[in-house]
Design a protein that fits this description.
mainly beta, 4-stranded antiparallel β-sheet, two-stranded antiparallel sheet, 6 strands, about 5% helix, elongated
Length: about 80
């Protein structure tokens, strides 16, 4: 779970979001690419691909919807 804050006077909260990172860390020996789709259990804005690079590292790029605010998106990349 991520809380988005703006530092200033006073510090303002800009909502929160969350993502399940288990698919990124699961051992999928034969899969070079896995797609995680938005659902009720995550805050994904659109499909998120987990790609295994040539060096064996997995990379996941995500767009997350912010909650508890009028609107907002957060783009992150996990390796």
């Amino acid at each position: 779970k991520f809380g988005i804050m703006i530092h200033g006077e006073p510090m303002t909260e800009w909502g929160d979001t969350e993502i399940d990172l288990k698919p990124l860390f699961e051992k999928e020996a034969k899969q070079k690419k896995l797609v995680v789709s938005p659902c009720k259990e995550n805050c994904l804005y659109r499909d998120s691909s987990i790609i295994q690079r040539g060096d064996g590292k997995k990379v996941q790029e995500v767009w997350l919807k912010l909650r508890n605010v009028e609107s907002g998106l957060l783009e992150l990349q996990f390796e």
